[in-house]
């Protein structure tokens, strides 16, 4: 389906390790001379992305940061969905016990 994603800028640069490397594919001398591709790894979760679609390293870093934020959001949504499903299943597995009946008054005769 179609989802809406708003880029979170709360991911700090110290939470992500960036590695630069040479891009692959067509591009001629520019590709052979510059390290414009970026591999970004989120240190806390281990999520890693490689971006080489842009000519600029800065643009690739920005895109890598957005992709990591998107994957973290997807992971959070999956965890919430699993928790919601678990709660729903738990709700249907509840067994009702024998309730205690307490009678008050003079007309009560135990059997």
UniProtKB/TrEMBL annotation:
Superkingdom of origin organism: Bacteria
Domain Prokaryotic-type class I peptide chain release factors: 22-38
Molecular function GO labels: translation release factor activity
NCBIfam families for the chain: release_prfH
PANTHER family in the record: LD18447P, PEPTIDE CHAIN RELEASE FACTOR HOMOLOG-RELATED
Family in the record: Belongs to the prokaryotic/mitochondrial release factor family.
Record-given protein name: Peptide chain release factor H
Species the sequence originates in: Salmonella enterica (Salmonella choleraesuis)
GN (gene name): prfH
